[in-house]
## 1
Amino acid sequence: MANYPKVLIVDDEASLVQLCKFVLEMAGFEVRGAYNGRQALNLIAEELPDLIVLDVMMPGMNGIEVCRRIRETHPSNPPYIMMYTADDREGTKDSSLQAGANELVTKDTPLHILTDRIIASTPSA
């Protein structure tokens, strides 16, 4: 059986999670979705994905805190973390990178470009 790259999409907007999930599955990824930071950390504890697309602005635990916790709990085998946000301020980018994110992509990025960046950032199938 093929070993497909695993991606976790984390966003409090369910429609965005489902859309990303659909597009990435069509591109050959194994995709799971989480709708808040706590759920994301629980899914990561069950199975560490190759890449995490993580919304910055979520109620409860924001994406920057989730990113920080992932880096603390998985220092030897870290997943690639792509912050995905509508907040394009420089301070958000700086905070994301300081928390351990690999990059920040804004939500105005077309979905096909986001998909291309995810493909480029994950191990091949």
Note: Residues 91 and 97 are 10 Å apart (CA to CA).
## 2
Amino acid sequence: MPTLTRWFIRSGLVCLLAALLLGVLMQWGPAAAHPWLRAAWPTYLHVLVVGWLTQLIFGVAYWLFPRYSAASPRGSERLGWASLVLLDLGLLLRIAGEPWAILGGDTAPILVTSAVAQLLAGWAFVANTWPRLRER
């Protein structure tokens, strides 16, 4: 298994654990009444879907899609790492900014930067994966 795939899957597992913990906190006990946790539903969904599912998909796809060439079987490793870093950066910015914005803070620059980072991560992944989907 390539190192990049392991990092995508590890990051995804961390996000799964974080989402599960946040989900429990949002629903259970006196902590559920805290305003930050009541505002965390969109963040919870984002961490679960983008953090867990998307990173798992990206990692497995990077590993298992058809080979690009003998010299560079998985395409550009730099684009793969860029995708991982940008996706995780976007997630961290979203985790920090979204609950604060919902509670009235001005975090538009943080959330825009988060969205752009995740968009670039997706583009990097597609740019690296697209050439591997050619007909033989």
Note: Helices lie at 3-27, 35-38, 41-64, 77-102, 108-129.
## 3
Amino acid sequence: MAGEIETPYDLRERALQFAVMVVEFVESLPPGIVSQEVGRQPVKSGTSIGANFEGGDVAESARDRVHKLSIARKEARESRHWCRVIGEAAVGEPDAAAYLADEALQLVRILSKMIQGAKRSQ
């Protein structure tokens, strides 16, 4: 998985690709109650990153923008956690889980920088 995707510089596109990869990853998990229950979590958080980033683009104020970006960052951190759980529990493909966890961490770092910049400009 790591060598298959070219990382886009546009955060909107990167968040979209991350969401799609998370959905595909969860779909590939073996059937069972653990996969079903644990798999719901990264799908929710992984698809929420881009949605909240988009919301930050049309925020009503600078403070609202920081709030939306902060939610996106929180969701990226949560996604990282769930991908690590799946990888560590050997429920899914460990390399794919590690790749997604790393990508989520990179999103956290990018969003953190954006939040810092947005706070400075308030």
Note: The chain is about 80% helix and 0% strand.
